[in-house]
Amino acid sequence: MSSILVVDDSKVMRDMVVACLRGIPGVEFAHASSGLEAIERLSLAKFELMVLDLNMPDIGGLEVLEFVRGQDLLSKLPILVVTTRGDEASRAHVLAAGASGFLAKPFTPDAIIAEVEALLLRGTGPAS
Fold this sequence. Notes:
Number of strands: 5
Shape: globular
Number of domains: 1
CATH class: Alpha Beta
Strand order of the largest sheet: 2-1-3-4-5
CATH topology: Rossmann fold
Helix content: 40-55%
CATH architecture: 3-Layer(aba) Sandwich
Radius of gyration: 13 Å
Low-confidence stretches: 124-128
Distance between the termini: 26 Å
Order of helices and strands: EHEHEHEHEH
Largest sheet: 5 strands, parallel
Structural class: alpha/beta
């Protein structure tokens, strides 16, 4: 069973991500509504993947990404950043910071399924 942490301050967006991914066999989900809650959940449970929004009110997604990459036990966790910032500069910045994948909102169910399945198959580590 693979466990995915979905982090977004919007409950609607968290629910939409889970609805899109629910068809992937052997996957269960946990939710976090803030960057701080994501960090807390990461310290309490093991996840095979995190879907992370950038724009959050307390600790932003970029800070969460940098925190995770700085932790020995979490540094290889695949992280798919899903954000409204769809420009190439934002994509390059997020990938350079250690994201494993990048998907602009709005996205199609097929797009997020493909990204998540690829990251779960690849296993660990940020994208090169």
